[in-house]
Design brief:
globular, Rossmann fold, oxidoreductase (chains A, B), alpha/beta, 6-stranded parallel beta sheet, Histidinol_DH_monofunct (chains A, B), 3 domains, homodimer
């Protein structure tokens, strides 16, 4: 049975804190193994990739097989139905339209001193996208990573996707094609991250690596951070539904299960002002669990990490939500739009009962790569900003330097950085000579 | 003697590649020690901070001394001269004005389907700023980290600054006061990062940690990344000057030394179209090195990592600059503004010979926390964006769901995520019932 909490009970704070700090994911200590894999790929390049891929993915490839050829991609995507293709294309269009609005603007202005200041945004040159293999190999994730990169203007986009037992996912390859991915490699794990970051004979290094993965992939991303940019270390998925009881309990039950079915470590929470509604949702979840195809996963997630939390009013709901800082937040209440304004920490908000979270996973337009594990307190979902960077610009005039140079010299001297001060002083002296 | 390279010589590519890949910083393997320190602070809190601080900083404090009191700050900043204070205040004003323009805008729009989409930016709740102690304890760095946080709307800003032998830096404390820092703690090293990330009895945890530090601090930031946000792992400073020989060689020599004096691992490079000018700059550097107060540091940096590179034309200069992706780029050429437009990868550009890089370190307005070690290929200097995060918004209507819901259901089924599909289907069925 799922856990029931109520802010009216004395044990609430202790139980809520326990819920928040529940360790949902075992992080096996794979760091030593990952360090070895990265060193191997740096030392031996393609040969290491081939050895590791043959071992982990139970295949027998050579270096010339590392890259998936266009002919192979053509053959795989021919298997995709017209309906699936149309859905992927609609998703790509809508994600593209949403993200196009995120392109940041350059700035350039002149001050009263005559100085010009500003900044300019430019795309990252090359990005590498990690796509998991097997069960969690999702075409939607390809779009969510690749489309923002292309919108940003990234010139080269390389995808790595392991193909265990040699089996490709046609939809993943179609998503690569639709999104304009330039290169696809049949590798995975820490070795794929190492290849993207450092390059091999076959794979040119990239500047930025994004995409979800298992503990090996996460550890490898943490290690190559600095050599390349990375997006985030993603944890298991989460949803928080705030409900005032006005929406159908069946809808909310399914929405909770749409996170729970992802992963045994996923977390689905309901916060409601209506205890009877909370009970009805919990009962609906139990019924749905009987028939759900992924019921083993969803049952474990709901049992171990799910909860129904009763609150006195929506003010309490907002406060709890900000403490949870959920990846996904559904507001199934009257006046959902106004309530959304009051939320401070959330990856994505789904406003009103007609907006199931799954819309955001596929087709709404916003990105589905979102901060997990309370990291919405300090980070954002993937966006075009992850694939651009800013160069700041400053242009002094003699007059501007005369106005602000002396203060720079003062601070340089105060910091005992003599040459810093001299670099300003030499120019100020020239100005004084000219007078 | 400094190294001279020329793109006209056969050995250029080999020597340039060696220059680019020179390992400028020893990274001692402190990770095991840092893991132990973090575990100790998590387990023992203030007691661990007190023990570690007393040991490393040669002091004898207790837990109630960890926070620097307002009275202590008052007493220290009373020592600052009026000239230094005025310079710091001008710098804070100018940095604030520049960064205020970086505040990102919310967006919200309605589609033809009736769906509303958008996003909203909110500030991080609490930020922790690491300030090094001793020689590299710079008030300008306090401003460069704290001012953007305050502009972003961060409500609580905590600074940690070690005070070896109990000695405070009055200018650092004044910079904290001017920038509106809320709390100052006399701790440093990995233990300070651990305290900011996890909290202790005295120090409430923060959401984001920024600021430069030594290898211990860098390793600790890498470890707490995910628990909190971090800015970047900063490496030694760099400058690239592109010169066509029109600027005074003395000015360029001093500008090169203003990076070299930071650190023996700093790198100062000149790329010039004029070999005689390159020679003149190198000679001016040698002369200046005779008298510079930090000549030991600057000489080592210039000798080990400096270079004068002669190119055939400015096209070559631009191409080399983008391969270097310098932290600081000075353009001392005729038509510097037009040349700046052609640069793709640089942390900050200083346009024209009247703009010494030191202006940017203190008072220009742009941030001086900038990507080093070629990371301008994929990352940006510190900004207001580091202290805000974005929540995406989606609000469907029944009509919008009718338009795009079926494609979401199709993709959910294709990904074998049944509940995802059902969450859309349940609503579509309701719509169909209503017809």
């Amino acid at each position: 049975m799922v856990e029931f909490l109520s802010t009216s009970r004395d044990d609430f704070e202790a139980r809520f804190t326990a819920l928040l700090s529940a360790k949902r994911e075992e992080s096996p200590d794979v760091d030593t193994a990952v360090a070895g894999i990265i060193a191997d790929v740096r030392a031996r390049g393609d040969a290491a990739l081939v050895d590791l891929t043959n071992r982990f993915d139970r295949v027998s490839i050579c270096a010339s097989d590392l890259r998936v050829t266009e002919a192979e991609i053509d053959a795989e995507i021919a298997k995709v139905t017209a309906q699936d293709r149309a859905a992927l294309e609609l998703a790509a269009d809508r994600i593209g339209a949403y993200h196009a609005r995120q392109l940041p603007e350059d700035a350039n202005w002149q001050e009263a001193t005559g100085a010009r200041l500003g900044w300019r945004w430019t795309p990252v040159g090359a990005a590498g996208l990690y796509v998991p293999g097997g069960l969690a190999s999702y075409p939607s994730s390809v779009l969510m990573n690749a489309v923002p990169a292309k919108v940003a203007g990234v010139e080269r986009l390389a995808v790595t996707v392991p193909m265990p037992d040699g089996i490709a996912n046609p939809l993943v390859l179609l998503a690569c094609r639709i999104a304009g991915v330039d290169e696809v490699y049949r590798i995975g794990g820490a070795q794929a991250i190492a290849a993207l970051a450092y390059g091999t004979q076959t794979i040119a290094p990239v500047d930025k690596v994004t995409g979800p993965g298992n503990a090996f992939v996460a550890a490898a991303k943490r290690r190559v951070f600095g050599r390349v940019g990375i997006d985030m270390i993603a944890g298991p998925s989460e949803i928080l539904v705030i409900s005032d009881g006005t929406a159908d309990p069946e809808w909310i039950a399914i929405d909770l299960l749409s996170q729970a079915e992802h992963d045994e470590s996923a977390q689905s929470l309901l916060v409601t002002t209506d205890p009877a509604h909370g009970q009805a949702v919990a009962e609906a979840v139990e019924r749905r669990l009987q028939t759900l195809s992924r019921r083993a996963i969803a049952t474990a997630s709901w049992r171990d990490f799910g909860a129904v939390i009763t609150v006195r009013d929506l003010d309490e709901a907002v406060a709890l939500s900000d403490r949870i800082a959920p990846e996904h937040l559904e507001l199934c209440v009257d006046g959902a739009e106004a309530l959304a304004e009051r939320i401070r920490h959330a990856g994505a908000i789904f406003i009103g009962a007609w907006t199931p979270e799954a819309i955001g996973d596929y087709i709404g337009g916003p990105n589905h790569v979102l901060p997990t594990a309370r990291s919405a307190r300090f980070s954002s979902g993937l966006s075009v900003l992850d694939f651009v960077k800013r160069t700041t610009l400053a242009q002094m005039t003699p007059e501007a330097l005369r106005a602000i140079g002396p203060a720079a010299e003062t601070l340089a001297i105060a910091e005992s950085l003599e040459a810093h001060g001299l670099s300003v002083r030499a120019r100020l002296d020239r100005l004084n000579e000219g007078e």
